[in-house]
Amino acid sequence: QVQLVESGGGLVHPGGSLRLSCAASGFSFSNYAMKWYRQAPGKEREWVAGIGDVARAGDRARTYADSVKGRFTISRDNAKNTLYLQMNSLKPEDTAVYYCNTCIYQNYWGQGIQVTVSS
């Protein structure tokens, strides 16, 4: 079955960087678009970034929420079935649980990984 497992979260100071990973299994990873979402305490889950499938590779296939544009970079390694989110210049308002997502007739979610930005 489809499985998504996030890793790489933690505590970082404002201005710091983290790289999240999402290991995917149970489906043909390269053939599906992937997304990152996040959910801060007391707020709804929000879309962060998306990347197209192998047929739509390249920068044109990457999209970002305005709040992270220029600071976050989404990428994928189809040989490793892994999705990444490089997060730079982190701010306290980036604190949230981050989820990777794909949609194959239904939405699939990872278990989430905590990112805390605090001094």
Please describe the structure with a list of short key phrases separated by commas or semicolons:
single chain, 119 residues, mainly beta, four-stranded antiparallel sheet, 0% helix
Q: What proportion of the residues form beta strands (DSSP E)?
A: over 45%
Low-confidence stretches: none
**Spatial separation of the terminal alpha carbons:** 40 Å
The major pleated sheet works out as: 7 strands, mixed
Decide which structural class fits the backbone: mainly beta
Elements, N to C (H/E): EEEEEEEEEEE
What's the helical proportion of residues?
Answer: under 10%
Shape: globular
Task: Give the overall pLDDT as a whole number.
Answer: 94
What is the alpha-carbon Rg in Å? 14 Å
Specify the number of helices: 0
Description:
The protein is an all-beta fold and 119 residues long. Helix content is 0%, strand content 50%. The protein has no helices and 11 strands. The protein has strands at residues 3-7, 10-12, 18-25, 34-39, 46-51, 62-64, 72-77, 82-87, 96-103, 107-109, 113-117. Strands 2, 4, 5, 6, 9, 10 and 11 form a 7-stranded mixed β-sheet that branches. The N and C termini lie far apart (40 Å). The model has no long low-confidence stretch (mean pLDDT 94).
